[in-house]
Amino acid sequence: MREFLLTDKDFSEISARVYDTCGIVLGPHKREMVYSRLARRIRANGLNSFEAYLSFLEENQDVEFSHFINAITTNLTSFFRENHHFEFLTKRIVPEIIARHKHDRRVRIWSAGCSTGEEPYSIAMTIANAFPSGWDVKVLATDLDSNVLGKASLGEYTANNVTGLDEDKLKKWFLRSADGAMYKVKPKLQSFIHFKRLNLLEPWPMKGPFDVIFCRNVLIYFDKETKDKLFEQYHDMLVPNGYLLIGHSETMGKEHLEFKNLGKTIYQKGQLNERV
């Protein structure tokens, strides 16, 4: 017998709250995940049911709502995940950026949905020595989940977290603990990155433009209407001919003629007159 009762009504209310706030669609197949994640919050608050938790959430929005959202969002990532994107960044995008910004020497890259930081740190490792001295190169790293942002900004990882990195990168960019169990990102690498909490469905405070936007394994949580809106916003945030990189399980509909599909989940911004 289960510890707590999760009724259809409770699940529907939870799903509606998550969708209204984040645009994330929780289908029936997510019911077990919702139970396990929110059961922890029920215990933490000394409650005895999902119904009681939802009432508590309504009465304590300021304190509990961020815990509620953080519990639901999933954060699975690794360093240099989908490495072909970083190879494309090195071989094609960086030379284009150098040519484009030879006068202003300003480079901006956005990691939208940065999770625990592996993606923005991978970007920073890729570009750290790619530009001539004196260039202003920054990575904006955002996520909805304040807990993972805190971990990302600390830049501390276990030995298991960094198993995909070669020894040269570990020596160059990380400080290893005496027992070899923990690795901390060096301040020089952290200096490239600005971490900020951002709900993609709320107004975006940054003005851009960005040369590259990484939005990988984030769009899978949204319905088509929300995805289409985000694709349009990303288009507006990119420099002419800038790039949008999405996750391996994500797609952009053929109706989005404002982007050129370059394959391998890589899209390039087209000109405004190319829109339908």
From TrEMBL:
Key words of the record: Methyltransferase, S-adenosyl-L-methionine, Transferase
Binding positions (S-adenosyl-L-methionine): 75, 77, 81, 119, 143, 199-200, 216-217
EC id: 2.1.1.80
Top-level taxon in the UniProt lineage: Bacteria
GO biological process: methylation
Known catalytic reactions: L-glutamyl-[protein] + S-adenosyl-L-methionine = [protein]-L-glutamate 5-O-methyl ester + S-adenosyl-L-homocysteine
GO MF annotation: an example: protein-glutamate O-methyltransferase activity
Segments crossing the lipid bilayer: none
Free-text function comment from the UniProt entry: Methylation of the membrane-bound methyl-accepting chemotaxis proteins (MCP) to form gamma-glutamyl methyl ester residues in MCP.
Protein name: Chemotaxis protein methyltransferase
Species of provenance: Pseudoalteromonas maricaloris
